[in-house]
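Q: What structure does this chain adopt?
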Amino acid sequence: MNNNFKMPVILIGNSFKYEIEATLKLFFHENRFAFSDDINEAAGDNYVIASVKNDSVISAQIMLNGELSSLEATLDIPVSDDKDTAEHELCRLIYRILSERTGIRPPWGLMTGIRPVKKFVELIRQDMSREQIYDKLSQKYEITPEKLDIGYITAENQLPILDRINSRAVSLYVSIPFCPTRCSYCSFVSHSMDSAVKLMPDYVRMLCRELEITAQIVKETNTEIDTVYFGGGTPTSISAEDLRTIMECVAENFDLAKIREYSVEAGRPDTITEEKLRVIKELGAQRISVNPQTLNDDVLRVIGRNHSGEDAIRAFELARKIGFTNINTDLIAGLPTETPESFRNTLDRITELDPESITVHTLTIKRAANLFEKAGENNNNPAAEMVSYSIDKLLANGYLPYYMYRQKNTVDNLENIGYSKKGFESFYNIFIMDETQTILGVGCAASTKLVYPDGKISRIHNYKFPYEYIRQFDTLMEKKKEAAECLKKISSLPLR
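A:
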């Protein structure tokens, strides 16, 4: 099937669109789907019919390349009494048919959520044994043994940090959504410096104003800042002078005396200079990222990077020279033209540099990325072999997985894992994945995630484009009222 084809999906007696689509994406991640409740839409060589009959019988019929397959099951509990189970079991029928017909066995099985480790954490907290957890998750989701292992180990490493969370604290995310160029795999909202340079003075001014307003809310609600994270884009795309202005604004307006972590994604090696690194260190950041993605120069050219592998190594060594003792490096498994051999070479060389943490992402082919147009070229991507190697290599070298997330359209339905040496886990990364702490997003394209004491989660999205952010700044600031209300409730919690 091609990228433009919309597979008809007919829902009879149910509205389980979200999970059914997520299940289909495990097998057809390049395709879109046309949902309907009209059985007459089931036409052609490829379609799906997902039915609930008589409140207890579910069935799946899948026409694939002109050949029809069907499965039916009777539920122990009526659909009207337990819709979640009915939805899951209907997805299981679809999963079983497509596994048989396509030969694809997703390593995470039926688990489609982006935060798989939360399931492990919940079960560990219920005092279930490792064996019991494996049995439960493998039966329900058909997860492979390798993924059960990495999920469990990640949860074990997260728990001590989650158990020490400051209930009256929040984190601060500062968005610098600019990059020198756009990488072919990138789907983030980022803007090239060539087009953004004329907006930069106004952007920096408005960003600092938003930081001041946000800091005032933190003070008035008697909450604390736990972690600070500069992301993007590539924060070091901007000048050292602008970076200093923004970081000085953070230092002047927020009490940083008690923060547990201050991170800046230095990011692309072609933006890293000694002057910028010195600004970052002088103004309080302890943790930075140097992100080569690969050390293979041919692959770097294919994805649109303007630096070499050696440039990445020099940037890392420069950060060490200046005195950074907590450096993360990001790699991507499955980049176009990358081979298992060249990925192993990259990971081996990065491991020799001895960073405090290494994050291994799996290539995700998003519609907003330029690479999506060539998605079919990745059908035989060796990402799974690369990811397996990274797990073995990093565990053997003393790196422990501490956070994990999954994305839609990831090659081979794999995952992104952050590894670190003991004691160098990123609090911010854990908090954003576990959704246990409010994160105040500041700047263009930033997102604020409000986590209320009762578990409710609400999001506030800033404008995506710099000119919108600048022109509609006052309107955007009206949304801060919701953040203030949430922080008032957080500040009333007992300290723990």
